[in-house]
Amino acid sequence: MDVVIQGAGPVGLACAISLLKNNPELKLTLLDKNSESDPSPPEDHRGIAISEGSKQLLVELGAWSNQVPAIHQVHVSQRGHFGKTTMRRTELNQEALGHIVQYAKITELLRNSLKTHATQAPFFQWKFGHQLENPFYEITPEVHLENCCIIHADGGLFHQQVAKDTHKNYHQSALVGYLDVAGIEPNTAWERFTSEGPLALLPHQLGPQALNFVWCASPHRVTELQNLSEPIFLEELKKAFGLPIGQFLHVHRRQIYPLGLNIRQDIVKDQEVWIGNAAQTLHPVAGQGLNLGLRDAITLANCLGPVFARQPHHSTDLSMLIKTALSQYPKERRSDRQMTIGITDLMANLFTAQFIPIVAARGLALATLQWLPPLKNALARQMMFGKR
Question: How many angstroms separate the CA atoms of 103 and 96, rounded?
Fold first, then answer.
């Protein structure tokens, strides 16, 4: 085999599609811990922020639906203190700033696209959980062939991972779910920084009568919020949010996700490479985790594509060609990775601190973004497209 991808979440799937799209003769094996009929945990209804840049990548991969809600404007402010900014699609001449897609929907679209490409890929193998030797679908010794590239795309969530080279527990969890609402401005996202942590309200696939929410706070507080009765929870949410944007009517599917930062510094070793959450796991404050991972996947596929497009290739040369291509990958990803991780970590730290000088400084920073459109637009473009 030429390539093994360990992990069939959105990043692993995107990488597989991109590789096969450009080289259908590739001997590619995808190791998927899920079953063929159950692509993702049925309880995982998270709304994932997809940037405009990621949408364009997914369109190219044949894994996009026009039925997902778009974000036309983003309001960012802090509860109880001055400083706010609003980013609008018109300021950037874009159709949308981003979209909100359920994790399960992204996975479904990518799996369907891969199935389509697989019909034209005679050497592609998709091995599911029941076909693998252990539940963790680890790379077995026989897979470590001399001329094989191993792609690790099996990161999972922060609390499921072992510590990497840079590991930070923010001592926060996110309560995620959705609301039935009324009188809410459509296609609008709110990022509200409270004394407990960031609180985001985002468009939902059900339309303007629903909103996704991501409420970050201490693990104890998040557990408390999860267990509140619906009327008390809605009252707490209204009080924490503190802006009269409409009515919160009902709450659904409250789930808890511990939060942290986990970074692998060396993302290439010999003929192995780590992408997506296997390389870095971020705080959701800026909604950048999956977007960064998708850029990892496409960049890696572009680096490896020319190696396997050479036909016929000599097995004695292939190992060196793989190593040479992989040595280029970290250089291609360094700037985007560093900037995205840095901005996310800075926001996660600054917008939870309650030290008065920091509160004043972040208020000034938000106000400055509003006063200086070029700076605001530059930040928005980084969030939308990454460092290019």
Answer: 19
